[in-house]
Each structure stands twice: as structure tokens, then as C-alpha cells.
Amino acid sequence: MPKGPKGEKRPADAIGRAVQIAKIATGEIEDERDEKLSSAAAELGRKGGKARAENMTPERRAEIARKAAEKRWGKD
Fold first, then answer.
1. Helix, strand or coil for residue 9?
2. Pick from 10, 16, 33, 41: CA 20 to 30 A from residue 66's CA?
3. pLDDT digit string (tens) for 14-70?
4. What is the pLDDT of residue 8?
5. For residues 67 and 76, what is the distance between their CA atoms, to the nearest angstrom?
């Protein structure tokens, strides 16, 4: 059986994969993947974002938020 990108065993064809997903959804078989709640990169990203926000002045944070809102809502 081929291995997926994370090393898990999975069917090679689309129909076999669909049957496996249906069996997992109905509880007929157990999903063999390990679900990682957060990767190390995501955890470090959260740390970095928090540290960046702490070092910024309130005026700079407001400026960044204003610029993001303008981009989001299309206001020039």
C-alpha cells in the first residue's frame, strides 16, 4: 500500500480512498493518523507575534490595523 505525505498507509486509487474515508466517518475503522494540535513553527509564530505586539507603540499598532482595514474593505 502506498504511503501518504505523512507516512500513513492509504489506498492508491480514488475509490479505495473514498471507501476508507466513509468507513472512518461511520466509525467502522479507526483513523490511524496522529493529529498534532499545533506544529512547532505555529507555536513559534504565536510567540513572535506576541513579542512584536508588546514592543510596538499603540500608535503603530493602530496604524497597522488601519492599513489592514483599508486593504480589507477596499478603501483607499
1. strand
2. 41
3. 898 899 889 989 989 887 766 565 677 778 888 888 898 889 999 999 999 999 999
4. 64
5. 9
Read off the C-alpha cell for 58: 499603540
Name the residue type at position 40.
A
- Helix (H) / strand (E) element for 75: namely none
9 touches 32 (CB < 8 A): yes
pLDDT of the residue at 55: 93
With DSSP H G I counted as helix, E B as strand and the rest as coil, what are the percentages for the chain, rounded to 5?
A: 60, 5, 40
DSSP string over 47-58: HHHHHHHHHS-H
